Fold:
Amino acid sequence: MKKKPQRSCVSCRTVRDKKDLLRVVVSPEGDVVYDPTGKLAGRGAYLCPDEKCITAELKKAAKLSRGLKKPLTEEEIQELAKQLLGSIADN
Structure:
């Protein structure tokens, strides 16, 4: 039996399968983006695909900033909120 990669949500610290979480990445150029494929290059952090978890984290973005090792601007937070909440609305 093959072992599935596990990751924890930076907001609620729940451990889940990697494919069940949403990945946010700081690209080598310094851009912060949502990574739906889970394969973009750069430093990544994971959030649960739950509206409560996403909105709670993006209000302050302290844990996400720490996980990405990059302070987030208000503009980046707003763009991430649109992308992440849009992705869970599609499912």
